[in-house]
């Protein structure tokens, strides 16, 4: 009856929108005492709206249209949630992105992107991308001046060329899901590549439900924090991005977002949340715990 119970559990999970890549993962999930959530695209929808976008120096060489053309063309080669919003924003100014004009595209997970266009190396990303661009004097924007929005910087070579901000909202049911996990004896954390104030803003939106918040993390930082958690107990990681892949692989259980997740995250995860509905996670833990009782 053991394989039958396991099979039933997998098929029940599938019916509720959870693709579990093997019965052993349910067994591990039953033991998990810590769950770490990525922010952008996992706790939040990742459906960004551009709030502000401006060149830092406005002259004949740097117009808003030129900056939009650079950013939208390069971002149209990225699968990051922010990319879609920036492309849409450019189109609202009748600027058509031209991905074919971009040479030497690079993606730096957790930082941003870079591409050659109009003979210039253009960098788009967070504070960390300034180092890639070779810029020592970043035009510092006070994070808390931005009301928790995500902030983007644009460099032409090593010269700061523009700045933008965008925001998204938390998914429905995240607060309830986190509270339910807590009532089940599971500690929850946020691990994000975004800046502190944006992380705090998301945490406030869900009524401070998460126990721990870690911001400004690189992919390897996320994996290192998972390893720290594992010293305490079995740990699950939930994420959607390229920058979550290492943490998803390190965790005892990796859960990846289905609809909007990056291909790499979905490949790495042991469980795929087909509906993107975080409320399925406490449900899955209950199912896993019940199945374990039946098997033992
Ligand atoms: P999270 O870890 O919360 O999911 P992200 O996956 O959004 O965070 O990555 C962290 C940060 O890296 C973002 O907040 C953003 O500043 C920057 N970033 C990554 N990719 C891009 C991109 N294509 N364009 C602009 N910024 C990017
Ligand atoms: Mg993400």
UniProtKB/TrEMBL annotation:
Annotated compartments: Membrane
Q: What is this protein called?
A: HMA domain-containing protein
Give the keywords, sorted.
ATP-binding, Membrane, Metal-binding, Nucleotide-binding, Translocase, Transmembrane, Transmembrane helix
Biological processes per GO annotation: plant-type hypersensitive response
Its ancestry begins with: Eukaryota, Viridiplantae, Streptophyta, Embryophyta, Tracheophyta
Q: Which residues of the full protein are shown?
A: 360 to 655 of 1036
Q: Which family does it belong to?
A: Belongs to the cation transport ATPase (P-type) (TC 3.A.3) family. Type IB subfamily.
GO annotations of cellular component type: membrane
Q: Name one GO molecular function term.
A: ATPase-coupled monoatomic cation transmembrane transporter activity
């Amino acid at each position: 009856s053991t394989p039958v119970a396991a099979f039933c559990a997998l098929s029940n999970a599938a019916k509720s929108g959870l693709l579990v890549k093997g019965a052993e993962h349910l067994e591990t999930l039953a033991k998990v005492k810590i769950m770490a959530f990525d922010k952008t695209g996992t706790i939040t929808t990742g459906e960004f709206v551009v709030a502000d976008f401006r060149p830092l120096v406005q002259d004949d060489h740097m117009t808003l249209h030129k900056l939009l053309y650079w950013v939208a063309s390069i971002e149209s080669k990225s699968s990051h949630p922010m990319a879609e919003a920036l492309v849409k924003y450019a189109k609202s100014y009748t600027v058509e992105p031209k991905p074919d004009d971009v040479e030497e595209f690079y993606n730096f997970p957790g930082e941003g992107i870079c591409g050659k266009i109009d003979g210039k190396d253009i960098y788009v990303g967070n504070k960390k991308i300034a180092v890639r661009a070779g810029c020592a004097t970043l035009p510092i924007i006070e994070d808390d001046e931005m009301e928790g929005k995500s902030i983007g910087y644009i460099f032409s070579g090593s010269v700061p060329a523009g700045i933008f901000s965008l925001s998204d909202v938390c998914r429905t049911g995240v607060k309830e899901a986190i509270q339910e996990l807590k009532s089940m004896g599971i500690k929850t954390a946020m691990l994000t590549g975004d800046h502190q104030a944006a992380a705090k803003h998301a945490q406030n939106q869900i009524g401070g439900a998460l126990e721990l918040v870690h911001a400004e993390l690189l992919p390897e930082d996320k994996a290192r924090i998972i390893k720290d958690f594992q010293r305490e107990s079995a740990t699950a990681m939930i994420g959607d991005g390229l920058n979550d892949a290492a943490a998803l692989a390190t965790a005892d259980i990796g859960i990846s977002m289905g609809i909007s997740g990056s291909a790499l995250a979905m490949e790495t995860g042991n469980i795929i949340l087909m509906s993107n509905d975080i409320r399925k996670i406490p449900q899955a833990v209950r199912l896993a715990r019940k199945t374990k009782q039946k098997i033992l």
